[in-house]
């Protein structure tokens, strides 16, 4: 929603994955929220700490709100949960609706369909989000590159 927990974690995880696999130049990677609650802010300190413990720096990311031009600019728009998916689908011109996917569709081994928002929870929630995002990032990468 606000681009300070889940989506910047996904941006950082996917960026690191593509760097490690030598495919970074094939992707334009960005994250955005569907709400403007935290525009210009760094990711939540708990998200940064969780990522840092796993070798990923999120400090370069600044929250931004999704804009209409993003529908045209990006080939894939990955929603973290059903609520954000519906917001994006409602705002999207028909020509670009096929670009919007649920992020966890790329982690079929996971039972969840939504990446839960860890903002009001504890550290375990941020760890769980990181694990979900890491699995989906690998699955998404494999589906695009292969």
UniProtKB/TrEMBL annotation:
- Pfam families per the UniProt record, alphabetical: LMWPc (PF01451)
Q: What is its EC number?
A: 3.1.3.48
* Top-rank lineage group of the source organism: Bacteria
* GO MF entry, a single one: protein tyrosine phosphatase activity
What broad class of enzyme is this? hydrolase
InterPro entries from the UniProt entry: LMW_PTPase, Ptyr_pPase, Ptyr_pPase_sf, Tyr_phospatase_low_mol_wt
Question: Where does the Phosphotyrosine protein phosphatase I domain lie?
Answer: 2-143
UniProt cross-references to CDD domains, sorted A to Z: LMWPTP
Q: Which UniProt keywords apply?
A: Hydrolase, Protein phosphatase
Query: What is the active site of this protein?
Result: 6, 117 (proton donor)
Q: Which family does it belong to?
A: Belongs to the low molecular weight phosphotyrosine protein phosphatase family.
PANTHER family in the cross-refs? LOW MOLECULAR WEIGHT PHOSPHOTYROSINE PROTEIN PHOSPHATASE (PTHR11717:SF7), LOW MOLECULAR WEIGHT PROTEIN TYROSINE PHOSPHATASE (PTHR11717)
- Its name, as the record gives it, is protein-tyrosine-phosphatase
Recorded source organism is Methylophaga sulfidovorans
């Amino acid at each position: 929603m606000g681009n300070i927990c889940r989506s910047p974690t996904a941006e950082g995880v996917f960026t690191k994955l593509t760097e490690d696999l030598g495919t970074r130049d094939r992707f334009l990677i960005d994250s955005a929220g569907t709400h403007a609650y935290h525009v210009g802010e760094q990711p939540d300190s708990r998200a940064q700490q969780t990522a840092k413990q796993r070798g990923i720096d999120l400090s370069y990311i600044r929250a931004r709100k999704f804009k209409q031009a993003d529908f045209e600019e990006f080939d894939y728009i990955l929603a973290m949960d059903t609520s954000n998916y519906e917001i994006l689908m409602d705002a999207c011109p028909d020509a670009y609706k096929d670009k919007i996917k649920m992020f966890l569709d790329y982690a079929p081994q996971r039972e969840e369909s939504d990446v839960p928002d860890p903002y009001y929870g504890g550290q375990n929630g941020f760890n769980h989000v990181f694990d979900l995002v890491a699995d989906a990032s690998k699955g998404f990468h494999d589906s695009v590159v292969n």
